[in-house]
Amino acid sequence: MNWHLQNLTQLQNSLQQGLIDSVGLTSFFLERISQLKHLNAFLDVQPETSMAQARQADLLIREGKGGPLTGIPIAHKDVFVTKVWKSTAGSKILANYTSPFDATVVERLGLDGAGMVSLGKTNMDEFAMGSSNENSAYGPTLNPWNLERVPGGSSGGSAAAVAAGLAPIATGTDTGGSIRQPAAFCGLTGLKPSYGRVSRYGMIAYASSLDQAGPMGKNAKDCSLIMNAIAGHDPKDSSSLEKDNEDYCRYLGKPWLDKNNLVDKPLQGLRIGVPKEYFSDGLDGEVRTAVENALRAFEDLGAVCVDVSLPKTELSIPTYYVLAPAEASSNLSRYDGVRYGHRSADYKNLAQMYERSRAEGFGAEVKRRILIGTYVLSQGYYDAYYLQAQKIRRIIAQDFQNTFLECDVLMGPVAPGVAWKFSEKSSDPVQMYLEDIYTLSPNLAGLPAMSIPCGCSTSKMPIGLQIIGNYFSEARMLQIADYFQQASNWHLQQSPLLAPPASNGEVS
Questions:
Q1: Annotated catalytic, 136?
Q2: Which of 58, 130, 442, 481 lies in disulfide reach of 449, CB 3.0 to 4.6 Å?
Q3: Domain tally for the chain?
Q4: Is the pTM above the cut of 0.85?
């Protein structure tokens, strides 16, 4: 069996029917990870621990204590701290660091929660700062669709792992598009929930008011199953919403309008806002065509498209790149070589130890953002830059609320183009930052947003459609995405690396 081609529901059924057990399933994916290690998708794999978890999961299933995710393997972005696997955040400064506790997301998905089996930690841009995975201290991850192209970032390792069939699903984090953009570049479904929906406890911080964890999987239903496990209030996280968790699968397969209404089409009554700013001259023609075709498909499903405006979209880039570095300069001040992480071997006093440890441990992009953040928070510039950015952030959030008076969700591209070739943009940071033009504003506003596959370029690279909802509308967004995926097959397109592995016959 080609287990790597199955979604979570199919894997669940296979486990329940005894077609395979968690030990066999975990062994299968560990073998694929080993065979495709040249992708550099994983930073740390501990096969013995994974197999031990699989045996425990099998025991839970035999005892009738398993849930819908029990025994299914999962990969975690290396931004989540873990007790067994190293937690480096893709940085040299945290090389070989192992946490004394698991992040809440890891804990809720693990054996004491949903019963999933951890396959290991995936590669990422250092401290989640990047859009290409080229900023990892441990080398870039390759895109399974084309090994010469980036997988997106910062959750590029998680995206590549799922797209190459190294894991059925993976966790990621999104500060300015770091789930949605790699999902789009690798042909996956990726969801960034509303800010505060998912606990940030144990998630190595980049920008605390923007960071949010979410799933990256094969389809919308897979993401909804993971959301059921990871969402909900966490008293250990001060930014966690005191809001009861909900069933994110509850609208799947149901019409948009109330079930008591007779409707001809499943999404009849849905109003889709199409921001004109998302279709400017900078948008690649093939991406534009794919998104427009997707919008027409939604109209065939009964939705109505409404032209709307988000006038401050272009200001989201300067606003983000003031606020995020400002928070990063504070969050990353804890890495000083004293208690954990990299410490310089050559220093004469404490101050020099700080300086040299940080200079040696941080990469170029992280240093750049720390310097920017420190600058905008310094005396004489705080009012001119940081406070102004906070004001614009409020205006951006209000623009969204004004728009949601006219529509239920917003749709547009995830990125201006498809995945680019390595080194194409890395020499020009500003050019790299411009790639986030469509994904930054939902983070600034704290809104939920997701990416779903909607096309393919002539270079055979996936194209993603972005869906942006109002606060706490994740279940509705997943419902919309699921109907699109029932009516199309873009999410079923496979990367060239999804061919069955050349195995010894035990796990193929």
A1: no
A2: 442
A3: 1
A4: yes
